[in-house]
Specification:
The chain contains four helices and no strands. The chain is mainly alpha-helical. Among the domains are: 34 residues; 64 residues.
Length: 161
């Protein structure tokens, strides 16, 4: 059986002996390190500018190597998009004219087909409040009709006999 330690006695903690490493300041080594880092930074800037030039040259080369077919396909895609935009603009204008929608609302129409554009134009027209014309008369275009003429009013007020 193993010996049991005495209950009243605490064991002594183990002590580790650590030797401290003391660095001494070496001014010459510090200056050399700073110089080396600055030189590396300069080289990195030069490399970055060279990389930018090489990437630009690669893009120019890739554009030059593009085949005539690819250039024609790019142009065709661009023209197809322009054609689609123009057709949409014409359909919007026609839908607005058919429904008598004011020109200011033409660009707000949504839809891909003429029927969808006309339905949207009708919805916009329904949302626009109707103008109420002022009540005017042929003999009194600027004021309200009272039903009494000037002669009748004079008689009533006793101004005219």
């Amino acid at each position: 059986m193993a010996e049991e330690p005495d209950k009243g006695v605490t064991p002594e903690p183990e002590t580790l002996v650590v030797e401290e490493a003391v660095e001494t300041y070496d001014e010459a080594g510090y200056k050399a390190l700073v110089a080396k880092l600055r030189e590396g930074e300069k080289q990195a800037k030069k490399d970055a500018s060279k990389l930018a030039l090489l990437e630009k040259a690669e893009q120019t080369r890739a554009d030059a190597e593009k085949s005539e077919l690819q250039k024609t396909q790019d142009t065709a895609a661009k023209l197809a998009q322009e054609n689609k935009d123009l057709l949409t603009k014409i359909m919007r204008r026609d839908a607005a004219a058919k429904t008598k929608l004011p020109d200011v609302f033409v660009d707000r129409l949504k839809g891909e087909t003429p029927e969808e554009l006309e339905a949207d134009a009708l919805a916009i027209l329904a949302a626009i409040p109707a103008k109420v014309p002022p009540k005017t008369d042929a003999t009194n275009p600027g004021g309200l009709q009272t039903g009494e003429t000037d002669d009748e009013r004079r008689k009533r007020l006793g101004m005219r006999k």
